[in-house]
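2024-03-11 09:14:02 INFO worker-7 job=invfold-0412 stage=load source=structure_tokens
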């Protein structure tokens, strides 16, 4: 299937590894030019080189990178000084640390909200009007399955990402929808990334179980019987960015191997 994205420009955040990199890979495979952003320069350079060698050399897509913290004003200024107009924006920031809500002070909450709610809103604000003027735009926010099924040790993430979800529910249904701009949230379940390693370690410390046992137990509870891969997550992202997905907006797309037990 031709997703109709050849030659488009995408900003992909948190793209040096994990789900962000999976999204960048899928988009470059479709001939999308990408500007990938992450804080760590060395990892970002390696990922950019991989994108070029594995995909861009075949599709002709351009790959640029910017080693900045997208959750800061200076970081966003640096990104937009490289390029102002994007057809696609994939927002993604590392999730807040797990823990007990009794231990989180105001600073911890502000940091979580800034990274996982306010930063995506700032990126949306900076790009949607240009998208609307050109008649095409796709924004995909990587949030979490915890928005639908909260995880007790991820209270900071539960709260901040739920705030973003509420905001998107309104803005996605504004006048932007009639101008070819869609805004959707992608809700990953358990994927085999550094994030799952962090939460598994936290659960192991809390329960006294081994990391290996927790991984086996978690995967056994997923109907698919395994963790997801960043590559298959990226393919879902690429579809939401496609011309075929023009009639999908304001949605929370759960990608969790069937783990969420609800009907709705």
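2024-03-11 09:14:09 INFO worker-7 stage=emit residues=264
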């Amino acid at each position: 299937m031709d997703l109709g994205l050849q030659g488009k420009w995408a900003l992909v955040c948190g793209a040096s590894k994990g789900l962000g990199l999976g999204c960048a890979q899928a988009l470059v495979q479709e001939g999308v030019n990408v500007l990938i952003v992450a804080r760590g320069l060395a990892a970002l350079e390696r990922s950019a080189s991989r994108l070029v060698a594995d995909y861009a050399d075949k599709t002709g897509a351009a790959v640029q990178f910017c080693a900045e913290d997208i959750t800061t004003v200076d970081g966003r200024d640096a990104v937009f000084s490289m390029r102002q107009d994007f057809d696609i924006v994939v927002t993604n920031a590392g999730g807040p640390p797990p823990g007990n809500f009794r231990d989180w002070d105001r600073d911890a909450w502000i940091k979580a909200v800034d990274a996982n709610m306010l930063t995506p809103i700032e990126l949306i604000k900076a790009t949607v009007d240009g998208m609307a003027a050109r008649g095409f735009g796709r924004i995909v926010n990587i949030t979490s399955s915890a928005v639908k099924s909260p995880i007790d040790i991820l209270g900071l993430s539960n709260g901040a990402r739920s705030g973003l979800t509420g905001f998107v529910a309104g803005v996605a249904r504004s006048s932007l929808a009639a101008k070819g701009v869609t805004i959707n949230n992608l809700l990953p379940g358990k994927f085999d990334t550094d994030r799952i390693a962090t939460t598994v370690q936290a659960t192991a410390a809390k329960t006294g179980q081994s990391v290996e046992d927790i991984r086996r137990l978690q995967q056994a509870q997923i109907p698919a019987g395994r963790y997801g891969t960043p590559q298959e997550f990226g393919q879902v992202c690429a579809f939401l960015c496609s011309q075929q997905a023009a009639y999908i907006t304001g949605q929370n797309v759960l990608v969790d191997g069937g783990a969420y037990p609800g009907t709705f």
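2024-03-11 09:14:09 INFO worker-7 stage=report msg="The CA atoms of residues 10 and 88 lie 4 Å apart."
2024-03-11 09:14:10 INFO worker-7 job finished
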